Amino acid sequence: MMRFLTMSPARKTIPTSSRRLLAGGSLFLFTLSPLPAALSAAHAAQPASTPAPGSAAPHAHASAAHRRAAARPAARRAVPAATRAARNEDVSIVATRGVSHDTEQVVTRAAIERMVGGTNPLKSLAQLPGVSFSSSDALGLDTWGASIYLRGYFMDQLGVTLDGVPLNDQSYGSVNGLNILTAVIPDDLGRESVSQGAGAVNLPSNSNLGGTMQFFTDDPADHIGGKVSQGFGSYAMYRTYARFDSGRLNASGTKFFASYARDYEGKYQGGGSDFMQQADGKLVQPIGHDSSISAFFNWSDSAVWGYSDKSLEILNKLGWRVESFYPNYAAAYATAAGTYLPPGWDQITGQDPKTVAFYDAGQHTVDYLGGLNLDFALTDRLRWRTTFYGHSDTSYLTYGDPNTPSATGAPLSEEVWQPRQQRMGFDTALQYRLGNHTIETGVWYENNIQTSGQYWYNEPLLGQGAPVETVGPYDVYGPAFQQSYNFAWTTNTVQYHLMDTWRPLHNLTVHAGFKTLAVTTSGGSDYNNPDVTGVDSLPNGSLSTVGAFLPHVSANWRFLPGHELYFDLAENMRSYVVGASGAGGYSASPWSVQDQPTFKQLQHTLRPERDWVYLVGYRYTSKRIIASLDGYHSDISHKLISASVGTLNNPVASVIDTHSATMNGVDAGLTLVPVRGLSIFNTVSYNHATYGQNVLAGQQYYPLAGKKMVGYPEFMYKTSAIYTYGPAQVHFDANYYSKREFSYLNDTHIPGYWLANAGARYRFGSYGAMKNITVDFNVYNLFNAKYIAMMGENGFPMSGDYQSLERGAVREYFGTVTAQF
């Protein structure tokens, strides 16, 4: 077994502390989220009023209810102890209405700004205990090589929203959602909120099993101005960001912002680059003193070259620098023709030597997201919030295929998967205050039209033209000369929720509610080429996921000053994954199985994944110490896995019901503030997740009972030290991830690894029209460790090795200059 010392993105973890106040007759959850940083008051994130999932985003203008709360006597507005303890720290005090859980953790704008501009927002969540994030590139722009887990739940098992819009499945090539990376420019995010417990019943999602992630954009500023940022870095990294805020345009408070970002990042190994353009816009129109309408629009165009997939054997025998041929078309051409083979490629067991690495690989994706958020105070007690949204995604997922000759006579071709989706929906809710109760009910509906096809495009004869590249265009030498299949589905989702937030005592808050979820997907293959697929018919048919009563109960008890106890329990359910064969191997989609007879059998035997999540926790907050301890347990029914066999060029997909699985874990965090300006933070996470039964897949019996789940470390340790002195700040952080199981039978694994990062910032103040001029310098992978980042991108093997690993980025340096005007 290969051994290597590596590291994972070390980020700051954020324990939380909750306080509830009855302000203006409304119930608010005050979540204190101290990060391991001591920032000056000028750097601290401002308090933000946060809507319930699916509601309008918070507004900069003060509502009448907020002004009435502010006018109350001081005794009614006493500052919570947790707030006083961290007054000078990097904290966020967030008033969240309608939240139905007590385990929310918040990443503030100040924490996001410490990362390199343009970094995948999912990476900033790696600061939290129980979160495992990895990526093949330093900024996380290559979604093929990026993954995130929350306490053992993968990114296609989480509930995710942006300003109330459901983003659903975050995995690569998904036709049931939108990755947050391409949904918004990270610089426009005001904060990020994570619940690693059971989530919230009012959050719209058809993919949530084990936690939620909510992202919120900043509102436009009240005063005209803007921000510009220019970044530079290793491997020709170059990033530009610009934003304009209109300020209040009239007496009613109309305001908007528009922003643009351009990212370029060269590959640290091999040829190619990651390129992305994004544009955001948001308009807010207050109505009266306590209502508003906001409109939003987001566009992204990303063209990303990926890194070659590796196996343990490839790493052991050929080393870490095996990479795709690009831009050496002649070498790729000769390898595909069988006249040349790089040294050692014929030593890889049971694999076509030509497939150790391809000519190129990557993806080109264009996304549009837009909608309206309505937030109306109908009466002093009744509030109505609604989100209307639409999303369009067009993607091309490609690699150079050395086993399929082009019609031009070239011995290789460009293989392209073309997934598409068009989602439209709304999420609406009414909230009514009655005494010590806040009652909410609402409905979410979404229609998603999805397609996925597989095509081969011509490459030229050697010396007779420039080769087709992974980011396109693909029809340079004519239309696709071969098609394998095409799938088309329609998915309709309806979710209803009802919940009550009750405060029987001044220091006790209880939430109780349920949701009903119904998801139906109809369709499947509408074109099949038997000469390519090798079967007479591909999967086509309907599957429904129905959960009539999915309950959720939680409570928070502040039994002494600075001391809190809380618990959270819920039942969740996830709809079936929609996907065609070959478009991402880690998701277990019933429509990705080999043929129609297999799918027909699954229609009668398959059951949707469900789970019960239990959590209990304790928090302590004082002037110099903030501590938290969570224990959790999950019982998972009908957990589905996609076991990968065969090669990348000839995979055999299978969907296996493991019947049952369990998870037990503990997260602990400790923040120390020994002196003003210095914050030291440590977290420890332990997760023991196992399958409950042996399984029969096809004609093969697998002793899966008691085996650990793949892909997630059993133990994590995160540490961070941040020191601020006047306008200067420095930070150092490191993460340790223990070994991760690679095969379902646990006979192969990826050893544990460390990753360390460091950074510094200096604020120069204002010069002329430019304000808050800031210079940042960051080092990623400070000690240049070798480590495996993403694993299972082509699926996990039942046993042994498989070409389904991505190397993590080498040491890289980044600098950024930012100014406001």
TrEMBL record:
Sequence ranges assigned to domain TonB-dependent receptor plug in this UniProt record: 104-211
Protein keywords: Cell outer membrane, Ion transport, Iron, Iron transport, Membrane, Receptor, Signal, TonB box, Transmembrane, Transmembrane beta strand, Transport
Coiled-coil intervals, chain numbering: none
Location (main, coarse): membrane
Pfam families associated with the record: Plug, TonB_dep_Rec_b-barrel
Signal sequence bounds: 1-37
Region named Disordered: 46-82
UniProt membrane topology term: Multi-pass membrane protein
Keyword flag Transmembrane: yes
Protein name: TonB-dependent receptor
Organism: Nguyenibacter vanlangensis
